[in-house]
TrEMBL record:
<protein>
    <submittedName>
        <fullName>Uncharacterized protein</fullName>
    </submittedName>
</protein>
Length: 822
């Protein structure tokens, strides 16, 4: 192999150029140096020297002074002071006197570290709380660029500095005695930035406010964002709420509304298990929308809590409101240790299904009859997701069963453990930051020789009904129930060894994964299949005659035939002539003579390039700009809808019917009694919306628009993320496929009409759910999205063999046009 330098030599050889003789003369001419040339040379030389000197002076003299502001927050326990009520008021003389003492002692502490002493600017005490007295402070440093890590390190060993200062003090009699120092220094395992949230440092807030609330036993306090509920919260503002409880109590913070901008980079609320914003003590960061029907309650570990809110540009969101109360330490909601016995039982993390408090350890010991073993199944497992990068280590919050740690969020009933003896211990641990909703578990005594009586045992120890083995569905979650199967006569034997239900054969979707179920579907060699399932000779295709009887053999024939006979499948131009192209509208090609297929095409596009729903993921901001959240006063989000024009929305009829429970619905234009039949409604807005990057209409399909089975479509919404579950705070998106009408009708017990459209993933797990109703089923076509359906109903959510049912928009295209002009 040749080395790079050899190759370069070779290149050099080939690139040498010899000047022609005429140029030689020119060179000789230039060679004659004039005086002017010499002067210019000297001037340039001096200029270069001066420039370099300047650079060196700047580098050594000034550059070292380029410093960055670094803020650290911390708390310190003062054990030789007794808390006084006046310490809660930062303008009291008692507060000021103690704060002065703390800051001057902090200065001494920082002077014990060379790195800190050099760059220290000053400290301010933010608050005090009981216990004996805890001081919460902010310290500012001006650190030369490049020295940040050294200062972070020094800060992370604050406790050692406090010791050093204590030992070397000529301690005056009245000096404060510090213990439990906690600065926002970097813990060894911590990966987040240790100084304050950089969003706070980079934003210039035009206003900042601080509020205090002391919870009392016989009183429920309330905090809320400014203006709530009558006006949107202010822009470019930083707010803090200091919450305190009596000694030996913890704080319960219960949000009844949380409705902020969806992007946490812009507006956010943070909850801390401290009185200062120490990132190591953050419990949760909230933004976006939380349904009032899903509980959002937090508990502190001590008797203080801090809520902060930061907003940037004006965006008009309502904000939040929360109740503040105190709960005695050791009360029933918080105790979690226990000895459990019996044949079966349940237990859950403290405060479930609400957020568990930080810094909690619980241990349950379960004992069943001798000779039996214990099996624990976690029905819900929702531990904090933070720190999951190293999920194997579970170094933050975890559950430990028989010495095996599990952490993060896990699907329902997928975490199960069986003991080897008749006892089992379960430990729950939450560390100092980030909390989750916790877990809910059941245990039972089982016979170790027959762990799944009359059932099939999966490799992951789950027990499933015997009938579910080899039925084409992945019931175990790891496919062990679908391996080594002999398919029954009711099944398709896929070449790859899987068995799939026979009704999936020839439905236009590759269910086996290897195409077996879509082979030999109907027509003989040399024939084509019409849309109405008739077989006609391939020679009849595009011969100008309707051989199928539904015109499907004359569609998409290369050149667009204009003025063809109009059928249910042809597109009708404005001039009433029909064309043979399938879905010609807004595809960028003018197909109608009058160009009407390309009119009104400013729709169905998001302005951003981007790469509740059950089984979905967060949508990007502006990805589905036609998605609307319909709110009912005091109940928040109830349904989805889609923008079709500046004045009109399409939603589901059942979203706007007044059933007596939910009041104040706007009067809609519905087609009929709003049941699952004709489940579509139009809503006219008071005034037109202004389109923006985040607000745009979806394309309405022509009445003849074809959405064939197998097409991939998007479902979006803020509905429940599992059947019977909670609404999603961030718009969810998921991809599903359109399902063949007759397959769907069989699956849904004959309830499907031609005005409905089915979409889903038949193996279950992805679907629209409660709260998604009225929202769009968006079908991508070219670079636009068309509104194929309106979320309508289903048999539960994401159940296998139970697709979601949508109102088929094409069937209502004429009605929509008649009512709205769109
Ligand atoms: C509902 O209740 C609902 N799985 C919407 C869609 C589906 C089920 C229920 C489809 O709004």
């Amino acid at each position: 192999m040749s080395s790079p330098s050899c190759e370069m030599d070779k290149d050099w050889d080939t690139s040498v150029q010899f000047l022609p003789a005429s140029d030689n003369k020119k060179l000789e001419k230039k060679k004659g140096p004039g005086k002017v040339g010499a002067v210019i040379g000297v001037v340039i030389f001096l200029a270069v020297i001066a420039l370099m000197t300047g650079l060196l002076v700047w580098h050594f003299h000034f550059r070292k002074d380029v410093r960055v502001k670094r803020m650290y927050s911390g708390s310190i326990r003062i054990i030789n002071q007794v808390f006084e009520d006046a310490y809660e008021n930062s303008s009291s003389s008692e507060f000021k006197a103690l704060a002065n003492q703390v800051t001057s002692q902090l200065k001494v502490i920082y002077s014990k570290s060379p790195q800190l002493a050099k760059y220290y600017v000053g400290s301010t005490v933010q608050a005090f709380s009981e216990g004996s007295v805890i001081a919460y402070y902010l310290s500012e440093f001006r650190v030369p660029v490049g020295q940040e890590a050294a200062v972070d390190n020094a800060m992370s060993s604050m406790d050692k500095l406090v010791d050093k200062a204590r030992r070397s003090f000529h301690t005056p009699g009245n000096a404060l005695v510090f213990e439990d120092v906690m600065s926002s220094g970097r813990a060894k395992t911590q990966t987040t930035d240790i100084s304050l949230d950089t969003r706070l440092l980079s934003t210039s807030f035009s206003d900042s406010f601080k509020f205090s609330e002391h919870a009392r036993t016989d009183h429920i306090g309330q905090i809320q964002s400014p203006g709530f509920p009558d006006s949107p919260y202010p822009s470019n503002t930083f707010l803090q709420w200091e919450l305190r409880a009596d000694p030996n109590h913890v704080i319960k913070l219960e949000f009844d509304t949380m409705n902020l901008e969806a992007n946490c980079k812009n507006d956010f609320v943070k909850i801390y298990d401290s009185l200062v914003a120490i990132e190591r003590r953050i419990m949760e960061e909230l933004c976006g929308y939380y349904s009032p029907s899903s509980p959002l309650t937090f508990m502190s570990s001590g008797n203080v809590m801090l809520v902060t809110m930061a907003t940037n540009d004006k965006k008009n969101y309502p904000g939040f409101r929360a109740k503040v109360s105190q709960v005695p330490r050791g009360s029933k909601a918080l105790t979690c240790n226990g000895h459990l016995t019996g044949e079966r039982g349940t237990f859950s993390s403290p405060n479930f299904p609400n957020y568990y408090p930080p810094q909690t350890r619980c241990e349950w010991s379960i004992t069943v009859d001798p000779g039996k073993v214990v099996k624990v199944t976690f029905r819900k497992f929702l531990l904090s997701k933070s720190g999951l990068e190293n999920s194997k280590d579970c170094w933050k919050d975890y559950v430990e069963v028989n010495g095996k740690k599990v952490c993060g969020e896990q699907p329902d009933r997928t975490v199960t453990e069986t003991s080897k003896t008749n006892t089992m211990s379960v430990v729950f641990f939450s560390d100092a930051s980030y909390v989750g909703r916790g877990f809910d578990a059941e245990f039972e005594a089982i016979d170790s020789n027959d762990p799944c009586p009359d059932q099939f045992q999966c490799r992951n120890q789950r027990c499933i009904k015997k009938e579910l083995q080899c039925d084409g569905w992945n019931d175990c979650g790891e496919m062990s129930d679908e391996l080594n199967c002999k398919c029954s006569s009711k099944d398709i034997s896929c070449k790859n060894g899987l068995c799939k239900p026979m009704f999936w054969k020839c439905d236009g979707v590759d269910d086996c994964g290897d195409g077996t179920d879509e082979e030999n579907c109907g027509c003989q060699a040399g024939q084509m299949k019409c849309k109405n399932n008739k077989c006609v000779s391939e020679k009849n295709q595009c011969d100008g005659r309707d051989d199928c009887g539904d015109g499907s053999d004359e569609l998409n024939c290369g050149r667009v035939a204009s003025g063809v006979t109009c059928t249910d499948l042809t597109y009708r131009c404005k001039n009433n002539k029909c064309i043979s192209k399938v879905n010609p509208e807004c595809d960028g090609t003018r197909d109608c003579e009058d160009g009407s297929d390309e009119e009104n095409c400013d729709c169905g596009r998001s302005m951003f390039k981007t790469s509740r729903i059950v089984g979905g993921q967060d949508a990007d901001e502006g990805e589905f700009p036609w998605q609307v959240s319909l709110h009912v006063k005091n109940s928040g989000h109830v349904c989805g809808a889609s923008i079709i024009s500046p004045r009109w929305l399409v939603t589901a009829a059942h979203c706007v019917q007044d059933d007596g429970r939910t009041r104040s619905y706007p009067t809609p234009t519905t087609t009929n009694t709003p049941t699952t039949m004709n489940d579509i409604a139009l809503m006219e807005l008071d005034g037109p919306v202004t389109y923006s990057d985040h607000i745009r209409p979806v394309c309405l399909p022509a009445a003849q628009h074809d959405f064939p089975a197998g097409n991939t479509v998007w479902i979006t919404g803020w509905g429940a993320t599992r059947e019977g579950g909670f609404a999603a705070p961030v718009l969810q998106k998921a991809q599903v496929r359109i399902i063949n009408d007759s397959v769907c009708n069989n699956l849904m017990g004959g309830q499907i009409t031609s005005r409905m459209l089915c979409a889903g993933v038949l193996s279950g797990g992805i679907d629209a759910c409660q709260g998604d109703s009225g929202g769009p089923l968006s079908n991508p076509s070219g670079n636009r999205m068309f509104l194929a359906g309106v979320v309508s109903w289903g048999d539960g959510c994401a159940r296998r063999n139970k697709p979601g049912i949508y109102t088929r928009v094409t069937k209502f295209r004429g009605w929509i046009n008649e009512k709205t002009g769109v």
